[in-house]
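Thread amino acids onto this structure.
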């Protein structure tokens, strides 16, 4: 299927598969049950260099392409979609946002520790007033004093912050610059900042290994070096990072469905039902064949578009197509395959129902399916959206 991969990409995929099998799989049920990823696994991922795969070498990363990053998160997701989702945010969205928007000083301060896994970064956008709809957001950064160096103040709240156990937070918010111009910016907030609160973590249906919780910003003092990119458009100028992120999250959903398929296929081959091998029942064989066909189509869609992104030739809204269709299809596959486990499937002891729950969570996390279809519709009907060029990465 992916016979066009180069030797480096194949080696990275094999490394990720080994990591997933030896380090992630033994902890996968525990991660789901405890709603927590062990520090030992985070440290091990750092030792393998996974957090820095997509970060440029000058900042301690490997500088790999998006195809390689997708190969890695797909393999990890076969064992634990929850951990793979957290890894995707840490590997792609957060560091690439800093790399696109940041000054050299900001990059040197943040990225090497991010690449090593020493300091995790969170990305915070959703708000109680309007989820991911930035027009309705209320969190705001305003100037504190006149003139450069006068500082800023941040007030507001966020919901559903991914990896809210992080040390550094990238906060998207409305802004007012010193001339009174309104915009939407990206602000760096450190966990120890006075007035910053991480509230109680949420208990979730799926994706439990990634801590998720609300944040409060109570008149936090922000210095000039805490603003990432242009104060008026930093919150939207890192679209290449967001696009890479949604394609990679589609790859985690693919890995989730593939992991469920692999376990189900092995289970069906071992089980006898009504006096014959279970796979001899025609509906069972057809369900497996249908799942395989969909997995094949999902993989083709993701990697064709990841490769296009790496060439700077990704068509508008195709990242949204990957995220919306793949995540929904992955959930459909997992829900159907769970039926083949019968009563065993709904028992936590088998460790398979977490795939269905994680797949459903991914239909909402990183932009709900409906939001992505709204973006696709705008492109189809109004031509809203442009191709991402290499210079923007």
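Threaded sequence (393 positions):
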């Amino acid at each position: 299927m992916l016979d066009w991969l180069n030797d480096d990409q194949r080696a990275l995929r094999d490394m990720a598969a080994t990591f997933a099998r030896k380090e992630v799989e033994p902890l996968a049920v525990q991660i789901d049950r405890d709603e927590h990823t062990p520090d030992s696994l985070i440290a091990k991922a750092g030792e393998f260099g996974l957090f820095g795969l997509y970060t440029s070498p000058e900042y301690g990363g490997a500088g790999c392409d998006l195809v390689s990053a997708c190969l890695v998160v797909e393999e990890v997701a076969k064992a634990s979609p929850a951990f793979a989702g957290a890894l995707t945010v840490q590997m792609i969205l957060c560091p690439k946002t800093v790399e696109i928007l940041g000054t050299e000083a900001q990059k040197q301060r943040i990225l090497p520790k991010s690449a090593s896994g020493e300091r995790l970064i969170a990305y915070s956008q959703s708000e109680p007033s309007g989820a991911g709809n930035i027009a309705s957001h209320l969190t705001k950064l305003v100037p504190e004093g006149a003139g450069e160096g006068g500082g800023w103040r941040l007030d507001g709240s966020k919901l559903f912050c991914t990896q809210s156990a992080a040390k550094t937070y990238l906060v998207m918010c409305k802004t007012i610059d010193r001339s009174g111009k309104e915009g939407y910016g990206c602000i760096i907030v450190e966990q120890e900042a006075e007035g910053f609160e991480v509230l109680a973590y949420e208990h979730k249906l799926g994706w439990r290994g990634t801590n998720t919780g609300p944040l409060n910003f109570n008149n936090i003092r922000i210095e000039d070096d805490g603003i990432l990119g242009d104060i008026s458009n930093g919150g939207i100028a890192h679209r290449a990072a967001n696009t890479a992120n949604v394609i990679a999250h589609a790859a985690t959903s693919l890995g989730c469905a593939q992991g469920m398929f692999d376990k189900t296929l092995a289970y069906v081959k071992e089980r006898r039902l009504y006096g014959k091998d279970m796979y001899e029942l025609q509906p069972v064989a057809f369900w497996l064949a249908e799942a395989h066909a969909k997995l094949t189509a999902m993989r083709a869609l993701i990697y064709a578009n990841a490769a296009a992104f790496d060439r700077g030739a990704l068509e508008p809204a195709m990242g949204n197509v990957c995220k919306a269709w793949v995540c929904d299809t992955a959930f459909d596959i997992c829900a159907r395959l769970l039926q083949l486990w019968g009563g065993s499937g709904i028992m936590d002891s088998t460790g398979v129902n977490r795939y269905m729950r994680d797949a459903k969570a991914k239909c909402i996390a990183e932009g709900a399916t409906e939001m992505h279809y709204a973006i696709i519709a705008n492109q189809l009907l109004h031509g809203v959206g442009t191709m991402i060029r290499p210079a923007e990465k």
